[in-house]
Predict the 3D structure of the following.
Amino acid sequence: MSLRRLRTLLQREVRATLRDPFTVAVLIAVPLAALLSFSFVLSTEVVRLRLGVLDGSASSASRRLVAELAAGGAFEPRAFATRDALEQALVGGDVSAGLVIPPDFERALQGRSPGGDAPQLQVLYDGAESVLAGNAEAFLRGIATASGAQLVRGGAPAGGVRATVRALFNPDLDGTPFMVAGTFGFVLSFLTTLITAVAVVNERLGGTFDQLQLTPASNLEILLGKLLPLGAMFAFDVVLMMGVAGLLLGVWPRGSALFFVWVSAFYVLTSLSMGLFFSATSATAAEAVQKTVLASVPLVQLSGFAFPIRNMPQPVQWVAELIPATHYIRVSRAIYLRGAGPLDLWFELLLLLGFGALLVGVSLRALSRRA
Amino acid sequence: MSGGRRFGFVGSVRALAWRERSVMRHDPAFLGVVVAQPVMMLMLLGFALSNEPANVPWAVVDRSQTALSRQLVRDVSATGYFLPPRALEGTAEGRELLARGDLLALLVIPEDFARAALRGDSEVQVLLDGADPLSAARIGGIVSSVAAQFDTTRRALPAREAPRSFEIRGRFWFNPTLEDRDFFLAALAGMLLTNLCLSVTALGLVGERESGTYEQTLSLPTRPLEIVLGKLLPYVGVSYGVLAIAVLGAGLVFGIWPRGSWLALLALTLPFVLASLAIGVLVSALARSSAQAVFISVFFILPSMILSGVLLPYRLMPDGVREVGAILPLRWYQIGLRRIVSRGGGFEEVWLPMLALTAQFAVLLLLVRWRMKPRLG
């Protein structure tokens, strides 16, 4: 191990990378594009949901109820004259929910004795959009219960319990910080692995790897010369993404930014090793890419990036725990959203360390066997 | 036609299509994409992924310690979304657990809960981990609705006859138990076809340019448009094969068969496949090497998956983002798919998505003609 040789190799690698404008563009554009497109898409809100209304009662009570549903901007009511027309609109996806108010709504509301039959509203949700329907259902139930109490003047004793719901760390249940913190995991796992795999395979195919091995540099030096500049660039990506997320989206880490950069830099090493492993076990660049892309499917779907691991069946949860990205995303969200520190996260950090050591070892072995 | 051409337009396209077919048949990686990916996606989307809360870790601070408060906790547990609750002494401990991510929800029942219930004025507090907003919103809704329906005079009246202002009877059409599986699998064909059409075409064309066979084809008495069509036709065939795998897989394994017109499904798929293939051709024209082609197509596929609405409902996306997603063919295809597969629609319901897809294909074809000038060297 000689520092002078390593420095020469580092210089070579930095020059080679910066000379290729495509790689530089990818390194800057992809993280930003991922950040901006992912951060907006998760929403728990119900906004401008088209609600078909079949008002059989056409009374002041029913009109008041519909007006109240429209008031918050959550629903856009559209009147339908017949049940057929409403059902047709549901099939066509023109409305997301249908509210059917019975003809005797007002009478039943005012004339009923306590304990008698409550007037019934029927709501048809478009279950084809399951998330949308679930959100709409919860929202509609809440708003109708609230306005129901007002509609019945005098107020029959409410039987239920009021629940004051408060979300810590994110009172508006805004999806953006959640997705921003996850996007770090996505970019640092997928892009890192892909770029490394392609770079190393191309070098091997171009014969420059063999040339390097003829120089006095040892395998380890060649590898470090390859990985350190890439790692530095991804560390730069982390800082860039943090800045853009903060300035453009207003999402700053709640915990220590420095701690986050350190954890991320270490995790980049893990992903780089994964890329090395794919490149060492592939004959062509296309094969390395295919392996990386195939590995990215569980990365996106099982790592908790988009879907909570908790909701998966038990065996799938075990598989998810075996993916390093799962743990990095967990740590990243803890630091970003809950302001966690090293002491809260020691177990996850230990796991990441273990994964890193394992992958570096495996990829080094695979590469030296190849060489 | 120029004098040197022995075959007409159709003849050339057919010959090139036949050549392309034999190339495909001998490519194991291609077969892997066509067969392995559908199976993997089917299993993941069918078995593994769900937005429906499950195994939610939660805790209760019960300061009331009465039969009524314990009943409320039992009622919340009985919804089936939760793990057995942890009993805590104070909210400080609960907040700490929330901060560490060990809890998703904390239910705080005040001391005077039972007494307030007699007055019909009881209240509980629910603290959620907002770090996971989608789950938190659902859980908040679940707990609130259990609480709202909780009959504080339980022993006097059966739950059904609890006095309430009016009753809402909700019904989920097309998906009575509101399973995310139905939502994902309805759009499965769209995800698979996007992957197939984009990555395979782009890689194939660039690979040919790299190995020089594209130049050979150019030296034949064929025109660029014929070459492109000849290359794309076999992929249309493969795409219908993948559509069959997606539909049969979802049907045989999960019992989710298309409810609407099969004919409309087949017709809707054609403009989508053509548009996606055209994007693949464009990517190949922009890329200088296969590695670049892969980068460009992968980073087109990913936003497609996220912004089109196959995994998350596009209607919840903010203004601007929603409109950007409308540029993607996958957006319109998944709208059409859901209308046919989930809601049982036919041609009448999907003419708009079909029109949009056809228009996208037309625009892309113009772009391809403009970019794909025969280039040698």
